[in-house]
Fold:
Amino acid sequence: MPIRILAPELVSKIAAGEVIERPASVVKELIENSLDAGASQISVEVQGGGVDLIRVSDNGSGIPTSEIELAFRRYATSKISNLADLGNICSLGFRGEALPSIASVAEVEISTQTSSDNIGSYMYLRNGDIARMERRARSQGTTITVRRLFRYFPARLKFLRSANTESSHIAHLISQYALAFPEVRFSLFLNKHLSLQTTGNGDLRDVVSQIYGLEVAKEMGEVEAKDSLTKVSGLVSPPSLARSNRNYLSFFVNRRWVRSPLLIKATEEAYHGLLMDGKHPIAIINILLPAQEVDVNVHPTKAQVKFRHEQVVFADVEKAIKGVMARTPVAKSRVMPFSVTSGQWQSPQMIRDKEPTFIAPLPILELPVLRVLGQLANTYIIAEGPDGLYLIDQHAAHERILYEKILAQWSQKEVEVQGLLQPITIELSPREEEALKAKKELLAQFGFTIEPFGGRSYLIRAVPALITKANLTEAICTLLDNLAGRENSAPWEEKIAESLACHSAIRAGQQLSNEEMRELIRQLEQANQPRTCPHGRPTMIHLSSHQLEKEFGRIG
Ligand code: ADP
Ligand code: MG
Structure:
């Protein structure tokens, strides 16, 4: 479409755009124009926080020489021409206001060339007036340079923050557009230094890696859901990768970057029960829906949109993300490398290059991500999983967690020890004393410092840090009793870990806060064998969706 001035009755229907507030608003308008022009490469150069210079170059369609003057007139646009178009906007811009607004508060230089013009054009504007205009050749595309922003507007200059702050706003903005358009190669130069560059290869994960780092990019789960009204796609973080603010939530509606309390709510709803209080996910969510379903003409800088069917969009987004949560594998690695030479389980740091290791598979029954719903009889945690209901025995679950922690610390020789300010005196039976003497070394490896104190009395000076909350005297007596007994043939270290875990675990009847339940479930998910306690009893009962439907007679 050629650039035309909008009819006054159409202008009156367009929400007034107070577009240029700060340097980042200039950048936003210019890159939106580049994207509307179909550019696959956009380079942004910024100096002095954008006040000194902003230059945006693209390889888009260019502006025909015959239209370049018009482009700087108010309400001149090539993107809509009648009222029907206004209800069906597929471009980022549509008000025809940006270029004249920018030219009225800065010095502007433009050079542009289309594929059909033999030679391109160059124009220089000062105070909104054309100061120079000539034909100039260049490759196809457009470069707009904005200098001395707000020079004659001291009130607005005063409102700006430091150059660094303004630059960081611009960098954030470019990051968002890069996330929205992975197929476009963005470069950002801040004071001549390349601050961000994307490949433009179309892979969102690659852009995430450029912006948030490789580690984040690797862990993000893929959102892909199609519903009657919307198509939702993008990447979301697993619950283990939370952030403490909402700056990592990006939403794009028909590829427009929007701020939307509705979409934030839908996303956080999908993580409900999965994150600690005050934690927020990382999410890049693209929502595609018919243009008639969104009104983009409601906000001066087009940063907000209005959905015709808000509740449907909300539900679709929540469902799409929940789908990812249900598929998210919880533990990154459920196998521990086993060192052949040392004969011990070891943490990956500990592996030396040359040492022969093999990965020993553990008997595993993985746990999906669980959402805590509440506590029953101060004894069981009620949780929802992707396939039905889970009732978790809080004591058995905690026992399992502690048991694995204690053994892992022991095998890695990283037992945390807690010295006691007041040593505890215990009186042992002859049988217990025998057990103590026989297993003194092993007990020391687990973090116990036990000294003879005359007769069969002993002083406990230090204990494993994991068990300090327990009733120590009782715990140690039971431990020694277990060691003296012959009931089971498990290795000694497992017996010790089992006994310590049992005594330190939270008890049945203990009321837990939501936070505590979530933490317990998170840790259980990370366990190697989350479904049984160290004694082999189940930690949970699972009622699958199928069972529930059967029980309620919903299916035959
Ligand atoms: P709008 O984007 O709302 O149409 P603008 O003032 O931003 O209004 O731009 C006016 C017109 O100038 C656009 O409609 C478009 O035709 C043209 N234009 C602006 N920037 C570019 C660009 N980078 N490449 C091609 N055409 C452009
Ligand atoms: Mg525009």
